[in-house]
Amino acid sequence: MVVLAKNPKKSSGNMERGKKIILGIDIGGSNIRGICGNKFLEFNTPKGEKEFIKILERFPRGYTVGIGVAGVVDGTKIKISPNIKYLKNFDFSAIGGPVFGGKRLKVDNDARTFLRAELVRHSVSNKDRVLGITIGTGIGRAFAENGKVKKIKKFEYPEKWEKEYQKIRDSKNDQKLAEYLRGKLNLIIDKYKPGAVILGGGVLGRRGFFEKIKRYLRVRVIKARFGAKAGAIGAAMLWK
């Protein structure tokens, strides 16, 4: 993990609140990542709940905790997580004491934590409308206006076309994938009319894919700067 400094614009990933170090965890369909102090931890997302809890137990204890999760969030509970089935009705507060040392806990959707982190690293005006889109196991969406990430509940649910996207993604035909996403993502862009879109997610790690999709989107397109750490950093920023 990398510690979030007091000014996240100058940091690669540390989050402190006063003298307290905050543990930020990003739980996605493929990976679980965390930032706390000067450490960055990363694990493959397990197939079952018992293994999942064992991974959480490997994070440092005794800290204030922020968690970003791919799914529908209700307080500290995940109502559904389409790509992590065992998280249905999973309540992080129920394991907060044994796993996190009983400290304070906040939970949010992982696309919102991604955008929250990336907003501090990019030259976008606080007056700008900004979309954050993650292209990974699923398609994450978040929206910010006047520098604040909005809570748009339907963005917590998967798009109807997500399974079709996953099939094309797994075919490794990046040109076909970029062409497919052109129509789908431009519909979201047309509806929310952002001044910029920040793109992240594991698929952007494919060579040349960012340049392919950038050409197709009808708006200014920015590549995420925090990379794989963005979600965990944004989760820690829930306590900012």
Automatic annotation (TrEMBL):
InterPro entries: ATPase_NBD, ROK
Protein name as catalogued: ROK family protein
One Pfam family it belongs to: ROK
Family, similarity comment: Belongs to the ROK (NagC/XylR) family.
Source organism, top-level taxon: Bacteria
Chain coiled-coil ranges: none
